[in-house]
Design brief:
Elements: E1 24-29, H1 32-35, H2 39-49, E2 54-56, H3 69-76, E3 78-85, H4 93-108, E4 112-117, H5 122-127, H6 130-144, H7 149-170, E5 175-176, H8 182-196, H9 199-202, H10 205-208, H11 212-223, E6 231-236, H12 243-254, E7 260-264, H13 267-270, H14 276-292, H15 302-315, E8 318-325, H16 328-335, E9 346-351, E10 370-375, H17 381-393, H18 403-412, H19 417-426, H20 432-442, H21 450-460, H22 465-478, H23 483-492, H24 497-506, E11 511-513, E12 516-518, H25 521-532, E13 544-545, H26 548-556, E14 566-570, H27 571-583, H28 595-598, H29 613-618, E15 621-622, E16 634-638, E17 642-643, E18 655-657, E19 677-679, E20 700-702, E21 710-711, E22 722-724, E23 733-734, E24 746-748, E25 770-772, H30 800-804, E26 813-815, E27 838-840, E28 861-863, E29 872-874, E30 882-884, E31 893-895, E32 905-907, E33 916-918, E34 921-925, H31 928-934, E35 946-951, E36 959-962, E37 964-968, E38 971-977, E39 987-990, E40 993-997, E41 1007-1016, E42 1027-1033, E43 1038-1043, E44 1046-1049, E45 1056-1063, E46 1074-1081, E47 1087-1096, H32 1107-1110, E48 1124-1126, ...
Parallel strand pairs: 1-2, 1-3, 3-4, 4-5, 6-9, 6-10, 7-8, 8-9, 13-14, 14-16, 15-17, 16-18, 18-19, 19-20, 20-22, 21-23, 22-24, 24-25, 25-26, 26-27, 27-28, 28-30, 29-31, 30-32, 31-33, 43-49
Antiparallel strand pairs: 11-12, 33-34, 34-37, 35-36, 35-44, 37-38, 38-45, 39-47, 40-46, 41-45, 41-47, 42-43, 42-46, 48-49
Helix pairs in contact: 2-8, 3-4, 4-7, 6-7, 14-15, 15-16, 17-18, 17-19, 19-21, 22-24, 22-25
Length: about 1150
């Protein structure tokens, strides 16, 4: 039987604040003569290999010896104990005393105990039979023969303590080795203890190996300081040195200790480019949403959002991480300028420039916050070797025969984590000869620094020139770009992208997030430097020019050549750089630490003049400057003023980006015959062109946020796959010729607020899969339609026939957000869209999910978030995997189809009135008939109590409710303040676990279920704590683990009594079954007492008050197949289903 793993969605600090200061992760208790040279030795090595610090006593005690003081300290200094119970375990008084002390530690703290039944039956331990019983009998004989009277008198009491300890440990969920391979058991045990200790939050091994000193420094800062003031920590260092990894680790370990927390990642890159303001808005909304626990922020003004963030930060003690800051203004916008932060708040900033933070407004206040700096300089020799070995061999140590080579390789990297990762990955599973070849390459005098050599090795190890050219193209032009668009453009340039991208991903040179290409900044700089070295002083002699300064100089001086394949110039970005350069502090501590210089990426360029802000505003370029670039494939020139004929543009362009284009239409003489992608967002275009063009290669056309009035001429766009007109607020006409774009896959008309009609010809688009009409006021229907408050109602008229001729049947994704749609706006039938998988109806005044949605036979993702009039929701089809109903202010109940095989994941953040998801959970007032059926007695005195609860699936604020019952999976729960379990429960024990044998009813009544009660220490507001209840039928080898969907608090921090009733059916529990119950805490609370009592069916012939709940499908005794982890093992929580969800894609 596999041991049960705790689910790790919960708070990362479950071991309490003292756990991080404990010396060991695990104390290993075992009988040396049974397992020291076998099982225990292998287990110890496996634990150590996984960086689990483990105490193992090397000495063997004689019978009768007292437990050594150092062993007592080791148990108390450990977060967990593994007890290997073997045949001769009980023959050692030392082992028995260890067992008792471990169990005492378990009761006193959150000490984790995992028993291993090694070649011994758990029932023999529980009942002290077999070898266990024989050993205890011999101890009794020895004690009876003891000549020392005091010791002889202590004997019976000691024997009783040992017996109770053996009984208790046998009831703790553990692992039985009988009939199983030892190495399989050990592997499982290591994974289990790592999960229970939440080591994935303590150390992210591929990134944090060797960073113990920094972890200790930052952790000490976080725990120290004054609770009366806020503090800021700056973590600085060059790219790839581990700043983000360290911040993530610290955040993951500590975020639950604060009232609010937020991690804003990769600010520098997200705020780069022309969309700086829009990116800041997104970051502000993320931050404000995290602080006020609200997912939907309806505000689009940077200054207003800054003010709201300031007010929120004053009211909540917050842990905030601002990752990748490169400008002090970003800090001012994100956290404000008034300097008011809640006492005890902590802010961590990661940046390449450690001086940036002190330039922000907070430090211009009369009383600035306390500021600490921590610079990262790389790993030690030992840490470097471990990290390289992790990526090269999959462990912390070199393989046999590779030690010298591994040491030599790690020394080349000079402690740089990213370099170690790249070199190790490139040598993964390689033979000795490959390692030698690598050293030969590193040994050449070609490169200036060792880190640069490592980065170069990763590049040189690519299997073809095609892959190398692809890497350079991505580094220069396509980081943070759409993968599909990138592949199409570069395929047009003659590059084999599918093969090449796979190789780049395999070698950790790029990654993907969704469909977006990602590359570490240091790798991007290396790729760009490879291009720069083609001609260090003369950019016009390179294959690519991606520096805005160099591009402007090249174009201004008309130095273009046939060598150039790609060029980028963004005048807004250049203006921003000019402003930043002019305002930067010349005495900055990082002034001489340019990334290029530090890592041997070449000297800063002096041959190209720097352009001032005022000068860049006046520049106007001649088009003739492009006439010599006959081999130019990629051209990104945004916000550039041109004069002259556009026929001078290169004729072979595959990708052209001219955001901020100044003219009102695309010039007819612009060569576009070979274009694959054209982007002209934020331009002055009022129409696409004066005369339609035949563009056989154009696949992607992005005209978002333009001033377009009309768009037409689609008859010549035979290959068009994506048309994006998002935010074109002046657009009033879309030409019927769009119906001829047979290859169109995506059409985005979101927020085209003046568009009166969408051509009915879109029905001809047989390949259209994604249609976005958010906030669009257009009508599709060509027939007359009834009038309502919004023209969009005509898009989905009452007549099904009108809809059938309007919407393509090929649609996979349809978005109709924020369109003032009423239920009457929808037709009776959506069956024509039989392929639709994703439907979004957010922020519409519907009162229920429209009936037509039921006809969508393949619908998987349905969203109706922000629909304020929704009071009840019937999930329309059993195919839905994800139902999003966030911010529905009136929502009370969600009903799921009874025939559904796997319950969908339901998001309902900030839907404050929701009390029931039918078949999944329900809140209800205390009902006397139900209380009687549950066997709950003497609760009248607490019926008027109030309890503060928060739904763990919702971001709603803490709310005080009268005492209620909550049912989920056929498990009823309630809670109230108190310090002891009720007297009417049969079996009680101090601590978090209990074992018992199911008794026979006096009248042979059928077992209905069991009541479980436990008392835990109180949890105050702002401290998250949840508990997992585990019921195991040892006899039938079945286990159910349940995490309640609610969290309870008391106003004064007093203890809380939880009362659960588990309904059982289908003979899951029968007379004589051995049953164990355990309560595991995921927070700072401690379970002090637990109790159980069986419940029998007393009303066979009467109406059953529980019949409604018993009719639910996904309950114990019902269909739990989708919650089954292994045979006979069930995890009852919705988060267990999340991995089965997938984002909708169009193939």
């Amino acid at each position: 039987m596999a041991i049960l793993t705790e689910i790790q969605e919960l708070s990362s600090s479950s071991s309490s604040s003292s756990s991080s200061s404990r010396k060991y992760h695990v104390f290993l208790s075992f009988r040396g003569k049974d397992t020291r040279l076998g099982f225990t030795d292998y287990l110890y090595q496996a634990l150590v290999n996984e960086n689990i610090s483990t105490f193992r006593d090397e000495e063997e005690a004689e019978i009768g010896e007292e437990l050594k003081p150092e062993l007592e300290r080791a148990i108390k200094d450990s977060r967990a104990s593994i007890i290997v119970l073997s045949q001769n375990f009980a023959s050692s008084t030392w082992c028995l005393d260890e067992l008792v002390m471990i169990l005492e530690q378990r009761k006193a703290s959150n000490h984790i105990v995992v028993p291993v039944f090694y070649n011994i039956e758990p029932t023999h331990v529980r009942k002290q039979e077999g070898a266990i019983g024989d050993a205890l009998f011999k101890h009794k004989q020895r004690m009876d023969a003891e000549k020392d009277e005091d010791k002889r008198k202590q004997g019976p009491r000691k024997l009783e303590i040992w017996r109770k300890g053996l009984t208790e440990v046998s009831g703790i969920i553990g692992i039985d080795t009988n009939g199983r391979r030892e190495m399989v058991v050990i592997e499982e045990l290591v994974k289990e203890i790592s999960s229970r200790l939440e080591l994935h939050l303590e150390s992210n091994i591929p990134h944090l190996i060797g960073m113990d000193s920094s972890i200790d420094t930052v952790s000490s800062w976080l725990k120290g300081g004054s609770s009366e003031t806020a503090e800021i920590l700056t973590i600085s260092g060059v790219g790839g040195i581990g700043k983000t990894s360290l911040a993530k680790y610290i955040f993951g370990l500590n975020y639950s200790k604060f009232e609010r927390s937020s991690f804003i990642e990769d600010i520098e890159r997200r705020c780069a480019g022309a969309r700086h303001t829009r990116s800041l808005l997104e970051l502000q909304k993320q931050l404000l949403g995290d602080i006020v626990s609200k997912r939907l922020i309806e505000e689009h003004n940077v200054d207003v959002l800054t003010s709201k963030i300031e007010k929120a930060l004053v009211n909540k003690q917050t842990l905030l991480v601002l990752d990748g800051v490169d400008n002090f203004e970003q800090v001012d916008v994100l956290i404000g300028t008034n300097g008011s932060l809640h006492p005890g708040s902590k802010i961590i900033v990661t940046t390449k420039d450690g001086s940036i933070i002190e330039k922000c407004a907070l430090f211009r206040m009369k009383f600035p916050p306390r500021h600490i700096k921590h610079a990262l300089h790389g790993l030690s020799d030992t840490g470097s070797l471990q990290l390289l070995c992790w990526h090269a061999f999959g462990g912390n140590d070199p393989k046999e025969g590779y030690k010298e080579k591994a040491i030599r390789a790690s020394e080349y990297c000079k402690g740089h984590p990213l370099a170690l990762k790249l070199l190790g990955s490139s040598l993964y599973n390689e033979d000795v000869e490959a390692w030698s070849d690598t050293f030969d390459m590193l040994g050449t005098g070609e490169f200036q620094t060792r880190v640069q050599k490592v980065l170069q090795i990763s590049f040189d190890s690519l299997p073809s020139e095609n892959c190398k050219e692809l890497f350079k193209h991505i580094a220069c032009f396509f980081v943070e770009k759409d993968r599909e668009v990138t592949e199409a453009i570069l395929k047009g340039c003659g590059i084999r992208t599918s093969y090449g991208l796979k190789k780049l991903i395999d070698r950790c040179l790029i990654t993907t997030l969704g469909n977006i290409l990602k590359m570490h900044q240091l790798l991007q700089e290396m790729g760009r430097d490879l291009v720069r070295r083609e001609s260090p002083e003369k950019p016009w002699k390179r294959s690519r020019v991606c520096s805005h300064e160099e591009s402007l100089y090249l174009l201004k001086e008309e130095k273009g050549t046939t060598k150039i394949q790609g060029l980028v110039l963004d005048m807004k970005m250049l203006e921003k750089e000019s402003l930043h350069r002019s305002s930067s502090d010349a005495n900055s501590e990082f002034q001489n630490n340019d990334l290029n210089t530090i890592f041997g990426l070449g000297l800063p360029i002096h041959s190209v003049p720097k352009f001032s802000y005022d000068h860049t505003k006046k520049i106007e370029l001649r088009t003739t400057t492009l006439s010599k670039m006959d081999n130019l494939d990629l051209l990104q020139i945004s916000y550039v003023k041109f004069k002259g004929s556009y026929e001078n543009f290169p004729k072979g362009l595959k990708g052209l980006c001219m955001n901020g284009f100044k003219l009102k239409y695309i010039p007819s003489d612009l060569p576009m015959e070979n274009l694959v992608a054209l982007e002209m967002s934020y331009s002055n275009l009022t129409q696409l062109w004066k005369k339609p063009k035949l563009l056989r290669s154009l696949k992607f056309l992005n005209l978002s946020y333009c001033k377009l009035v009309k768009v037409g001429g689609f008859s010549g766009l035979l290959a068009l796959e994506r048309l994006i007109l998002k935010g074109c607020e002046s657009l009033v006409h879309l030409c019927d010729s769009i119906g001829g774009c047979d290859n169109l896959v995506l059409l985005d008309l979101s927020n085209c607020i003046k568009l009166k009609k969408i051509p009915s010809t879109i029905i001809k688009l047989k390949n259209l899969k994604k249609l976005y009409l958010d906030g669009c006021k257009a009508s599709i229907c060509t027939q007359s339609s009834h009038t309502t408050s919004s023209p969009i109602s005509q898009f989905v008229p009452r007549s099904p026939k009108s809809l059938l001729i309007s919407l393509p049947s090929s649609l996979v994704e349809l978005s109709l957000n924020e369109n003032n749609l009423f239920n009457e706006s929808f037709p009776a039938d959506f069956s024509s869209m039989s392929m639709l998988k994703t439907l979004s109806l957010d922020r519409n005044p519907i009162v229920s999910i429209p009936d037509c949605v039921r006809t969508l036979s393949r619908l998987e993702f349905l969203s109706a978030g922000g629909c304020w009039d929704l009071k009840s929701v019937l999930c329309p089809t059993s195919t839905v995997k994800c139902l999003t109903l966030n911010n529905c202010d009136s929502l009370v109940k969600i009903t799921l189809p009874p025939e559904i095989s796997e319950p969908p994941y339901v998001f309902y953040h900030d839907s404050r009135l929701l009390t029931e998801v039918e078949g999944r959970f329900k809140f209800q007032d205390i009902d006397d008939e139900i209380l009687c059926s549950l066997g709950w007695k003497l609760l009248q005195h607490v019926k008027d109590h109030n309890v503060v609860i928060r739904d763990s699936d919702s971001s709603r604020e803490l709310t005080t409710f009268p005492l209620q019952m909550y049912c989920e999976y056929g498990i009823f729960s309630t809670c109230f303040s108190g310090n002891a379990v009720p007297d009417w429960l049969d079996h009680k024990i101090n601590g978090p676990s209990i074992s018992f044998t199911m008794p026979l009813s006096s009248m042979n009544k059928k077992i209905q279920g069991i009541n479980i009660c436990f008392v835990h220490t109180g949890s105050t507001r702002g401290v998250k704590s949840q508990l997992m209840s585990i019921v195991r039928n040892v006899t039938k080898d079945r286990t159910w683990a349940y995490i309640s969907n609610i969290i309870a608090f008391t106003e004064t921090g007093e203890d809380i009594v939880w009362l659960n009733h588990w309904m059982f059916g289908n003979n899951e529990l029968e007379h004589g079954d051995e049953v164990s119950v355990g309560i595991l805490s995921f927070g700072p609370t401690i379970v002090k007492e637990c109790a159980v009592s069986p419940v029998y069916n007393d009303k066979e012939n009467d109406d059953d008050p529980l019949s409604y709940y018993k009719s639910w499908k996904h309950i114990i005794g019902g269909d739990l197949s989708c919650f089954q982890r292994e045979s006979g093992e069930y995890i009852l929580m919705m988060e267990f289903l999340i991995p089965s969800l997938f984002l909708p894609t169009c193939n």
